Amino acid sequence: MTDEKATRGDMDRGAERDDDQFAVRVKATPDQVDELLRRGEFDFGDHPTITPNPDGTGNLDLFVTRSQIEALQAAGYELEVGLNLSARARERVAEVGQGDRFDGGRVPPRGLGRKIGGRSGPGDGKPEDPPQRAS
Predict the structure, then answer these.
(1) Which of 9, 38, 61, 117 is an S-S bond match for 49, by CB 3.0 to 4.6 Å?
(2) Could you tell me which of 24, 2, 17 has the C-alpha nearest to residue 79?
(3) In terms of pTM, does the model score above 0.90?
(4) In this structure, are residues 59 and 53 in contact, taking their beta carbons and an 8 Å threshold?
């Protein structure tokens, strides 16, 4: 969950925004996990991910803001703060080019996809009709 780049990014909070979401792993007992999930204020994705620890606790993966991190720490939870997911998303979106890469329809798309519906032609990826059997 953490890596060198994430750790450096968390130290430099200049690019951080108030509503940025962080990947966080919370060490908690089963009762604490139950309480955190029942509170309904934390984003755990499509379902809770809990990794058991040998000592009977578990690591609960959450997506939380900096203020939620501080509240969990103040409540005594042991946290592993990972990547600032929002900052990472902003970096990746900045990589996306601008403009019309198909030049108003004059440049056809390339790749493995196939056209569904509309006009089609040879090599459109549609299966050929099966051969007819003689009666």
Answers:
(1) 61
(2) 24
(3) no
(4) yes
